[in-house]
Amino acid sequence: MKIADTDLGERPLFLAPMEDVTDASFRFICKEFGADMLYTEFVSSDGLIRDARKALQKLEISDYERPIGIQIYGHIPEAMVLAAKMAEAVNPTLIDINFGCPVSKIAARGAGSGMMRYPDKMVEITRMVVDAVKIPVTVKTRLGWDENSKNILSLSERLQDAGIAAITIHGRTRSQLYKGEADWTLIGEVKNNPRISIPVIGNGDISTPLMAKEAFERFGVDGIMIGRATYGRPWIFKEIKHFLKYGEPMPEMTISEKVALAKRHLLKSIEVKGERRGVLEMRRHLSAYFKALPGFKEYRLKLVTENDPEVLLKTLNTIESVYK
After folding, report:
1. For the segment 44-72, what is each residue's pLDDT rounded down to a tens digit?
2. Is 101 assigned a catalytic role?
3. Counting CB atoms within 10 angstroms of each CB, which of 66, 71, 83, 89 has the fewest?
4. Which of 13, 16, 84, 101 is catalytic?
């Protein structure tokens, strides 16, 4: 599969952009486990053009992360164009437009999946961004606003005509948020539409290697994007690739392997963000690595409240010795 001139190989796996999750340290870990395409956390176009510190920090990418996309969102065409140019200046592989986020504070003002109520404006913004930059532009979106307005079949054609290089489709409407099961049927219909020549990437509920295999084989998508299932389990990329290649599950990660991974992730976070912020923003990840362990409450409390990295490392050593 290729997006413009970037060859991602056969059946590539994409790390979904997730706010407060897919930061530089998490992307580093997912890359280690075989993610073929990374994305930054999604970036507000308004924040970028106001020079908001948090938005600007999200543009910081490293060569080892490539190929990587910067995802932007917003509802004002001119702001989206300016944000796209700012993102292009740091030389990502591509710019992705977020027309899929269902969070109320974003969708309510017409950004993210809120744009699905205004397909003409959605296409207009896409065309303006494509025309404004020299690197590939892709789109991530949903099936429609609600059950009565699933317009992804016609919309995907219009977005392709606007010049995008690939489309990622989450198999839910905005009104569903993340409830119920993702419906991949329409994703498959987009992929099998003879009018569609760009890559189609499917997204939604892929949480096991078997589900990934079935998505590729049943719906014919070019790639799969994985979001929530990577949280606390970034090795899912390696699991899926092993299953696709050998037809059998990869051996389970041992406690020792998970502890070593948690340490590496913690130290990478500190390296990238400094000790205080690096520790604070790692807390959610540390506990997630071990969420299935019985009687874990005491250790979880330590992992989500401790500020001293040395104490955290010792706690991880204790977890290894207790549960090994």
Report:
1. 888 887 877 777 888 889 999 999 999 99
2. yes
3. 89
4. 101
